[in-house]
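Why do we care about 3D structure at all? Because function follows from shape, and shape follows, mostly, from sequence. That is the central idea of this module. The next example makes it concrete: a single protein chain, its amino acid sequence, and then its structure expressed as tokens.
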Amino acid sequence: KAAQCYLEANLHDSAGRVYVKMAQNDPRFYTEAYEAFARAGKWDAMLGAAAEALASSRIIEVAYTHDRIEFFASYLANPDIAKDTIPKLSPDQIGRLFQKIPLSPRFVTVARTWVKVQKNPLIDMEVLNYVARNKSLCELFWVGIDDMTKIRLTLTLYSIPMINPEIKAAHAPFVRSPEAKLAI
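And the structure:
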């Protein structure tokens, strides 16, 4: 009832907070919360409520429309969410994601999650380009990669002719050699 009163008074931010409290007992109220926060222009609160509701299509829309790419990248750190959400991204959105997220250990670890849960050549290429910019972060990326993913990334590096030789060189200490690739 309080949320309705706030909505009628055009206090959408307050209504959103009430809906979040209500969602602790019934998660369906997260949808009302993110809609109220969206009407109030409270994009970070809206994205948090939408993440709770797992409304990935709406999260993609708001994250890209209102330039909350870093929040979106953090949201995709959860492997289950990444597996469901990454296929919904357009090639332009994937490119923008890697242009906007800072090169840091945190996001390198998140990027590693993405290549583990998605067999998407575009994601693979963008991640390889992203981590190649810093030697220690490149090493951090490869530390947690399982053998099958290493094989897939090695094939990506050596089978796509448009990959910059500098990118290949940055990854060379961590991947299987082209000779090993031939043996696979």
